[in-house]
Amino acid sequence: MLELKEIALEDESSFCEFIHKYKEECGEEKIPYCLNPRNLDFKEFIKEINLCKHKDTLPKGFVLARSYMILVDGRIVGCINLRIGTNDFILQSAGHIGYGIALWERNKGYAKMALKKLLIEGKNIGMSNFLLTVDSNNLASQRVILSCGGIFEKVKDNLLYYWINLGDWKQEESAMAIVACQEKILVTKEWIYGKEVLSCPKGHIEEGETHIETAIRECFEETGVLLHKDDFQFEASPICIKFMDHHNLPICKTIYPVVFIIDKFKITEIKEERILAVEYMDINEFLKECSYTNVRQIIKQVYKL
Predict the structure, then answer these.
(1) b or e along 206-227 (b: 16 or more beta carbons within 10 Å of the residue's beta carbon)?
(2) 241, 257, 267: which is closest to 303 by C-alpha?
(3) What is the pLDDT of residues 154-207, one digit of tens each?
(4) Which has the least CB within 10 A, 10, 18, 113, 277?
(5) What is the chain written as a DSSP string?
(6) Cα Rg of the chain, angstroms
(7) Cβ partners under 8 Å of residue 274, min gap 6
(8) Alpha-carbon distances, residue 32 vs 60, 79, 254 (angstroms)
């Protein structure tokens, strides 16, 4: 699972080890700012990063910025930073986002996933237009930017300029069926945006449907398990998630968890092509393997209730 974590003092050992190996293997590549290109002492590097996070400590000529490690299952695979605001330096060369993926971790889709996550971070704090610049010979980064909706503007001094415009949030609502039976829950393994994910049956709320009706319908359409309104127990607190869909549109989705309890396991059936498997899984095992942090939070909430 890929996540972004702001670089902090407690990361000194793992970060410095990663940076040392990165720079040994990168050859003549340009080192992004978030990878400490000036080889500052780590504490000095963190101090500089922290100064750039607040308006009242911002160094002259800098814009507000946040720097993150890109983690996959807890290991560092690269770094990425977001520059919040615009000045001549941003517009002429730096752009709003810079990143670097370790040589040994490339061609795995990590740059694209990290960039999409950071674009959503920027969107959350009010940014809509993002400039990204890349060397003309860096074909891999050009593909990443294009895959995230980048629009080519110009080339200048061997540097390509791309803009990504996220526009307004598209609002969506879904209901999720959480089906519990004897300390297990009904789960689906799905193929989503080119990767396998583990979650619970869910889908869009159709016009005129209640949350319960949607959860029952989606559960049957995805798993073949037919629930009844008598199986309904309660609705858990809804959650809001933000992401970019496969058309690179920013989505703000509210998910309504609907909890059902059945007294015996019902026969399952894969009914949609994107569904790889359907099974009843131990709750604790699901909490370890679930692909989505917010879904794990829902299940923990439900389990307590």
Answers:
(1) eeeeebbebbbbbbbebbebeb
(2) 257
(3) 999 999 999 999 989 999 999 999 999 998 999 999 887 677 889 899 999 999
(4) 10
(5) -EEEEE--GGGHHHHHHHHHHHHHH-TTPPPPGGG-TT---HHHHHHHHHHTTSGGGPPTT--EEEEEEEEETTEEEEEEEEEES--HHIIIII-SEEEEE-GGG-SSSHHHHHHHHHHHHHHHTT--EEEEEEETT-HHHHHHHHHTT-EEEEEETTEEEEEEE--SPEEEEEEEEEEEETTEEEEEEEEETTEEEEE--EEEPPTT--HHHHHHHHHHHHH-----GGGEEEEPPPEEEEEE-TT--EEEEEEEEEEEE-SSPPPP---STTEEEEEEEEHHHHHHH-S-HHHHHHHHHHHH-
(6) 22
(7) 190, 191, 192
(8) 20, 8, 36
Angle at 186 between CA 263 and CA 246, to 5 degrees: 155
Strand 75-84 with 129-135, pairing:
unpaired
Residue type, 287: L
Amino acid of residue 115: L
